[in-house]
Inverse folding.
């Protein structure tokens, strides 16, 4: 058996890296900062995609696909956007290689230089708004509610599997509307979809809020976000939804004829979540034994392990186990029967724990005699003996119970690690210990910047449900009307 | 109403372009050779993906994701492969833009030049086999059966929507096996999956065969393919499955310990289909009125159009129509009720015909009195009046019947346009008229090349079920033991 994982309490960062690696979720590729998402990790991502895609479609969106390449001139059109992304662009300059005239191998063919450089999309507002120009003529063409699943490249200097990689997978919604209000409603609706997904599927409680102007998406009028707390007390931004105003419709000269027969620029939103959610999932729930997966996102929800010494015993156990397997499968539960004789059952138990399989059933000869099965749940690591007659019902209930329990545990953790702080000394003290800090802020970028420089804490968001109360900025003492959320963040 | 489509008989090429455009399937983007796949086109692609993905999983494959970037040195490792793809590579040379010091806009930052150029993947054998090196140690790690859905870039000079684009979407399977035989079996199994998908879903009859050495994938030992015939008599390669031998495992130094404790190189396959299948779908079945979709791939299978003059009439029709809508929906049929009052029903009929919606139900006041509904099928453009009591059953049967009928029509077309040819004069004559030509070939690359130069016909494949018979090469007169398939091709 391989050696134990590092403990969260001793080295959280190393614990994370090792879980990603040993649970076969992802690994670094030969290309700097790019990851290989391994089959087990990808199966979780597919479940996320499928649930999100259903939610997008249920809210009236359709999928489409836009080009990977952004002409440099497109990026230049929206000034803030250009400034925000220019420093991390992968640039295609040539379209051909040729045999090396001076020796072995291939070299870039200097005769195949592009007239205009192409950027690998760091996000697709520019390409999409350039396309919308011909799609939007009249108010009848609106709203346009489109989503795209694709890969994205941002040349990050410090990368971390799932959390920050040069290439990542995501979805990006891009919508166009007749009125400002409709676009704001869409921005909020999609934030709601993300929050619901985070809570109901990832079992991850999130705070819904607005970014401070400093932290807005480059080109947005307003950025909404969902923020989650990881077990080491650091925050993770799990999704963003942007109200783009008319910035892109103006930059790309998109206009429509309104009902009064006048030309107007449409109002825009964009919103996205990425494979970063995989990082959130891992860091929020897992323990020192490995991954803990909420049942709704587990590629294998139930594993059945027969415990036997002879082929005859295995045959007897299988006779009882297979009907359970078949019934669960028929009921839509993702179940695996592991009778592989190349590994001992102890090794299997550890492996399924490491991989976060929610429920493990073990059946040995004594269970057979007693008409029972041992049921182990991954989140609490508890076991119980259940009668074969009851086991199907039991599993259905348990899967629901575990989904709720994992959420409840994460919520309790967040509540236990959220602190209202009123003085600068308290703030500096608490930020070292981690957690969400609720504190008053004077609303200026200067204060925000100073707090960041002194403590590495950023404003995660201004919560949508913040209570109005008179207070003084924790840093400057200037008056403030509500608390915002500070934390160190991924 | 917009003007009629060009006729297939007059300008097939223009007919194709116009269908792609007017049925809202795809359009050219601002980036040369790259397409935007529009929502309606993407919805068809999603159905293809979903069906194929199920078939891949049913044959034991899992999905994963590998990086977009291929280091230049990787491409160089397998010589034939490098030669095959070098001329059409998009090359990333820099990772940052900066403000233009001489004026407005952005320029490539010369200080951000990559040490080694990165190629946008034209296919992923090299990246994947470099990764497999650490995944494959023992015979226990095999077979490795992995698939990836992703985007691909090949810098094509002459592009055509769906058929040949600089960026396209595809899936690529990459498997590794202990024995040569197992890898060959896998290659053939996946060819079978593609053929089944083409026939059962796209309703497209295909010939399964082997490529001649000339037409093999760069780096393959053997390339299997499925070939289909389009309505203009040209062939279209609809999918390929490659037996790669040990070429990549040797180039990337991948070895495993076999059961006898000796080191061996694994045997490999790769196989792919792409958004090109969209082109095949369109060109195989559509007619001068627009798209014809086999029901299994239609985003909307049934549309219900109420025909009314007053809101009161609409209310009465809706009362009868909605139960049909609900029953179909509950039965898993994709159905739309179009009571949009901004368009006349004549416009709607033409629009649904253009978009290939398989079944159109029309309900007017007279139908209401008679307890009937008018059922129009897209493939034959025939109409019949059906009693409301029978319509659900009728639709279920009709959807199945249409799927079979569209296939049967395409098969008959292929049979009518497949010709056994024994003389060179006949060959030259027939190739001008189009169709598949079955002719003897002497097996040499020279002859193949000469035939191509003189007639633009290529060997589409050597059919797997070719009958052994003594014959003489249609060009050289040299002896041959079976006929191969020639055609002009997309």
């Amino acid at each position: 058996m391989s050696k134990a994982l590092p403990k969260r309490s001793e080295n959280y960062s190393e614990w994370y890296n090792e879980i990603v690696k040993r649970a076969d979720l992802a690994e670094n590729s030969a290309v700097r900062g790019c990851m290989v998402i391994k089959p087990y990790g990808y199966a979780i991502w597919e479940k996320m995609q499928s649930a999100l895609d259903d939610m997008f479609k249920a809210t009236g969106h359709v999928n489409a696909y836009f080009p990977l390449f952004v002409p440099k001139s497109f990026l230049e059109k929206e000034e803030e956007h250009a400034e925000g992304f220019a420093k991390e662009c992968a640039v295609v300059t040539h379209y051909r290689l040729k045999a090396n005239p001076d020796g072995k191998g291939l070299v870039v063919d200097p005769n195949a230089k592009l007239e205009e450089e192409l950027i690998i999309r760091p996000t697709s507002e520019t390409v999409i708004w350039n396309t919308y120009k011909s799609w939007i003529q009249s108010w009848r063409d609106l709203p346009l509610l489109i989503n795209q699943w694709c890969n994205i490249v941002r040349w990050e200097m410090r990368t971390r599997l799932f959390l920050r990689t040069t290439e990542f997978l995501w979805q990006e919604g891009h919508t166009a509307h007749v009125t400002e209000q409709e676009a704001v409603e869409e921005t909020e609706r999609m934030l709601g979809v993300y929050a619901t997904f985070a809570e109901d599927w990832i079992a991850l409680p999130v705070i819904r809020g607005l970014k401070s102007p400093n932290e807005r998406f480059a080109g947005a009028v307003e950025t909404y976000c969902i923020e989650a707390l990881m077990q080491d007390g650091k925050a993770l931004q799990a999704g963003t939804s942007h109200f783009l105003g008319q910035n892109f419709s103006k930059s790309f000269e998109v206009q429509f004829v309104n009902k009064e027969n006048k030309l107007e620029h449409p109002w825009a939103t964009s919103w996205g979540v990425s494979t970063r959610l995989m990082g959130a999932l891992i860091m929020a729930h897992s323990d020192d034994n490995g991954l803990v997966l909420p049942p709704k996102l587990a590629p294998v929800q139930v594993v059945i392990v027969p415990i036997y010494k002879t082929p005859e015993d295995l045959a007897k156990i299988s006779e009882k186990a297979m009907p359970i397997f078949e019934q669960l499968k028929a009921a839509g539960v993702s179940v695996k029967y592991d009778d592989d004789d190349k590994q001992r059952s102890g090794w299997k138990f550890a492996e399924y724990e490491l991989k976060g399989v929610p429920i493990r059933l073990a059946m040995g000869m004594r269970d057979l005699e007693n008409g029972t099965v041992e049921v182990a749940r991954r989140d609490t690591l508890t076991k119980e003996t259940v009668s074969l007659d009851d086991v199907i019902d039991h599993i259905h209930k348990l899967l629901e119970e575990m989904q709720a329990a994992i959420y409840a545990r994460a919520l309790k953790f967040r509540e236990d690690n959220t602190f209202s702080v009123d003085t600068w000394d308290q703030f500096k003290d608490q930020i070292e210990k981690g957690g969400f800090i609720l504190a008053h802020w004077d609303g200026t970028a200067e204060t925000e910047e100073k707090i960041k420089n002194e403590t590495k804490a950023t404003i995660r968001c201004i919560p949508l449900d913040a209570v109005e109360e008179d207070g003084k900025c924790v840093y400057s003492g200037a008056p403030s009307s509500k608390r915002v959320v500070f934390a160190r963040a991924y």
User: Anything to note?
Assistant: The first helix of chain B runs from residue 12 to 22. Chain B has three domains: 12-58+134-285, 300-397, 418-487.
